[in-house]
Amino acid sequence: MKTLFDSDARSSIQRRVTRLEPNSTKHWGKMHAAQMVCHVADALRVALGEIKTKEKPGFLRFKPLRQLLVYWLPWPKGKIETPPEMLTTVPSEWHDDASALHTLIENFGKRDPVAKWATHPMFGPLSGPEWGTLSWKHLDYHLRQFGV
């Protein structure tokens, strides 16, 4: 399974982000490209502990189900409600938002996977390796949403 802790996987995601345009057409979902860039950046900020979250009770916190979603099942299109913490940043200047995303991806990849990581609002406590895989899948999902 790919992870943001792997430099090749991270570089591949970075190249795809670079190909994204503010007017890229979405293939599904409600967000436009600028909203998506801010959303995935906020998700990385949550993982890095830069945005505080409130844990929400729910079935996704149970480890066997979490493991299935993180490591095995494809990300369901439009089936998971976005936590409000991951919709914090309002799009501004495209170049600035994209640059911030690039920096967050790199900062994520440089962090020690065995360090203590922030709690995910829906999945609960996650390990570094879980965050690395989940974050790669999340970025991949949204980049595919816009055809990159």
Which shape, going by the Cα principal axes? globular
Give the overall average pLDDT: 91
Which strand order do you get reading across the main beta sheet?
1-2
Helix content: 40-55%
Give the SSE string.
HHHHEEH
Number of domains: 1
Note the total helix count. 5
CATH architecture type: Up-down Bundle
Please give the alpha-carbon distance between the first and last residues: 19 Å
Task: Please name the CATH topology.
Answer: Four Helix Bundle (Hemerythrin (Met), subunit A)
Q: How large is the share of residues in beta strands?
A: under 5%
Low-confidence stretches: none
Largest sheet, if any?
Answer: 2 strands, antiparallel
| Radius of gyration, whole Å | 14 Å
CATH class: Mainly Alpha
Give me the count of strands: 2
> Which structural class best describes the helix and strand composition?
mainly alpha
What does this structure look like?
There is one protein chain. This protein has 148 residues and is mostly helical. The protein has 5 helices and 2 strands; from the N terminus they run ααααββα. It has helices at residues 7-19, 33-47, 63-72, 94-110, 128-145; strands at residues 119-120, 124-125. It has a two-stranded antiparallel ribbon. A hairpin with a 3-residue loop joins β1 (119-120) and β2 (124-125). The two termini are 19 Å apart.
Features:
148 residues, mainly alpha, Four Helix Bundle (Hemerythrin (Met), subunit A), 5 helices, globular
Secondary structure: elements and pairs:
Blueprint (H helix, E strand, L loop, with lengths): L6 H13 L13 H15 L15 H10 L21 H17 L8 E2 L3 E2 L2 H18 L3
Antiparallel strand pairs: 1-2
Helix pairs in contact: 1-4, 1-5, 2-4, 2-5, 3-5
